[in-house]
Amino acid sequence: MQHDKQDARLDGPLDGIRVVELGQLIAGPFCGQLLGDLGAEVVKIEPPVTGDPMRQWGQGDRPSWWRVIARNKYSVALDLRAAEGQDIARAMIAKADILIENFRPGTLEKWNLDPADLRAANPGLIVVRVSGYGQTGPYAARAGFGGIGEAMGGWRSIVGDPGSAPARMGVSIGDTLAATYGCLGALAALHHRNRTGEGQVVDSALYEAVLQVMESSVADYSASGHKRTRTGSVLPGIAPSNVYACSDGEYLIGANQDAVFARLAAAMGRPELAADPRYATHLARGAHQAELDALINAWTQTLTVAELEAQMIEAAVPAGRLFDPGDMMADPHFAAREALVTLDDIELGPVTMQGVFPKLSGTPGSIRRPAPRTVGEDSEAILERWLGPAKGEPA
After folding, report:
1. pTM score of the predicted model
2. Is cis: bond before 240, omega within 30 of 0?
3. Which domains does the chain have, with CATH numbers?
């Protein structure tokens, strides 16, 4: 995918920002993906030969996750366990605006890349550190993958059906949340640097990123001793809001506001339900959630998904079918908003993936280059451009 360099809008709002990414697998690289999508020049430092394990990750007979998480990046091969590789990394970081890493705390220091020293050499440097438990505290040195952060942050204990073992989200939500908060912190730190010239360290812990999206679960327990539990597809007290069976599939309806429920009741041919004391108010519907869901489910089973969707659109009731990737690729709304984009891959051919979000009206992000095909393929060009010909040999 190419664009005219004369059109500065397509370079993104972070055009001119240099990022060195030392991370691997998901959290650090996803933070780099977000910054790259918004226009930053992201140089990914990979171990020689083996590269980032993400190159082999994904599902199906042609794994393609690397094509998403490494887009808009350059690959430089350096052995950070060797003095020569460390020296070149330090020289690059001295030219960078942002450094991303997601190793266990203490790893950078062991590699002679202590952020304090890096920032002494480059006072404007912003260091994004993503880890399981954060850089401080009694658990800091523990190994912590995304699932562990999801468990400690409270997510895993409430996901799944009652009486079943805790379930996972199906995607690495802990990693991507921590990466997103790391990106948010980096952008806030850039604003601070623009005013003061000073960089800083952004400490993003997996468990805290998960904790941040846990709504009022801790506050509810603190205030009343209430603990959320696994409740399957429903949120207790919020009704109707569930997935309902149709004659040919399933469909999600969210009509838990009074006026919206009244429109749903009318669409069902049961307008009297909106005035029924059992369902007339938010609290009443929550108290009678199971019987209301059963009533709605009995109605939806008489309709196909398409028939139900047409009625919900006509009634202005928030509702929608459950999409899989095939549905997304065929949907006109995804196409109209370019929510999905297709890149030509030299090995896989056309590969469709999610686009760049959020959408900015003046300086939108874009996918300006595909993921690096080989480990270190940009080493010579990047090192010469960043450091000059004298540093132009990869370690």
Report:
1. 0.91
2. yes
3. 8-213+335-391 (3.40.50.10540), 241-323 (3.30.1540.10)
